[in-house]
Amino acid sequence: MVVEIDGMQESNLLTTLEDIGLRKTSARVAVTAQIENTSDSFTAEQLCRDLPYVGRATVYRTIRHLVDAGALCKLPILDGAPMYSIARVEHHHHTICTKCGSVGEFRHTTVERVMRSLEKEIDGRITGHRMEIFIICSKCLAE
Amino acid sequence: MVVEIDGMQESNLLTTLEDIGLRKTSARVAVTAQIENTSDSFTAEQLCRDLPYVGRATVYRTIRHLVDAGALCKLPILDGAPMYSIARVEHHHHTICTKCGSVGEFRHTTVERVMRSLEKEIDGRITGHRMEIFIICSKCLAE
DNA sequence: CTCAGTGCAAATATTTTGCACTATG
DNA sequence: CATAGTGCAAAATATTTGCACTGAG
């Protein structure tokens, strides 16, 4: 669920969970608040470390609910555990810094147009796509 | 290493390993032959199942060498173990059937052109990208 | 012969599940 | 007060590593 405040979007993950019929429990309040306070993307492990009083299984279950509801993006990376980030816009792609691992979000209409032109080349029906741009972020470049 | 035969490309994974200074052992012969006889993409686990007389660790180590050498693509998927496929062309993208999991390869110049146009929008230096197209393949559509 | 490579089993990493207990609605 | 949700620990899954042994060069 997305609430408009002063033109800014505040994604309320807890409300998303309630919207799909789940109860408002203290564990879910803690997990969603922690995610919303995390500026960048995060791993399940990170969340468990930050919330030692919430059970590991509950953290994983809550993440799964949010991914299923489309409120979180699951971002499989080449090595190790997947990263998660709040899905702030409908459809988007990610930038991943190969130095520090920070994840950004972007949207580009050309990408969508390319998809349509690919339809003739591909044997089968296109149902979706995923794209990641690997970068060295400006912060790492500065160092 | 790539050998041209009648205009077809035969990628010789074993030669790739020798080229990076590794010995030609019976385990490596078995693993590379099995990969080359696999028409589609595969998981490490699949390879271990197909080669019960080769140690699990050796299968993983051989895969890692081939990925490092650029002869295999590692394709992280949303759930479960990553898939691998022979890198038949320099730079390409993948189609993944969401029904049967079969993986295809394609290359499209427009994608590369889009990358260049993205350079102005993105904060940092682009070093690479990855794109996957999710499809229902023609085989699954026919069913 | 030497040491790169192997197979095994144990360790590690990540995620899921069974189950008895708790607390939300 | 019924049962959805939790925490824990064990299981499941995926991969890596230590180590003694083997075999390629």
Largest sheet of chain A: 3 strands, mixed
Oligomer: homodimer
Structural class of chain A: alpha+beta
CATH architecture of the largest domain in chain A: Orthogonal Bundle
**β-sheet strand percentage of chain A:** 25-35%
Question: What is the element string of chain A, with H for helices and E for strands?
Answer: EEHHHHEEEEHEH
What is the assigned CATH homologous superfamily of the largest domain in chain A? Winged helix-like DNA-binding domain superfamily/Winged helix DNA-binding domain
Question: What's the domain count of chain A?
Answer: 2
List low-pLDDT spans of chain A: 1-10
Number of helices of chain A: 6
What would you say this structure looks like, in words?
The structure is a homodimer of 143-residue chains. Chain A contains six helices and seven strands; from the N terminus they run ββααααββββαβα. The first copy, chain A, is α+β, with helices and mostly antiparallel strands and 143 residues long. Chain A has two domains: 1-87, Winged helix-like DNA-binding domain superfamily/Winged helix DNA-binding domain (Arc Repressor Mutant, subunit A); 89-143, Ferric-uptake regulator, C-terminal dimerisarion domain (Dna Ligase, domain 1, 2-Layer Sandwich). Chain A binds chain B through residues 74, 76-78, 95, 97-98, 104, 106, 108, 110-111, 114-115, 117-118, 121-138, 140-141, and chain B through 74, 76-78, 82, 95, 97-98, 104, 106, 108, 110-111, 114-115, 117-118, 121-138, 140-141. Strand 7 of chain A pairs antiparallel with strand 7 (124-137) of chain B, so a sheet runs across the interface. The structure holds a DNA duplex (25 and 25 nucleotides).
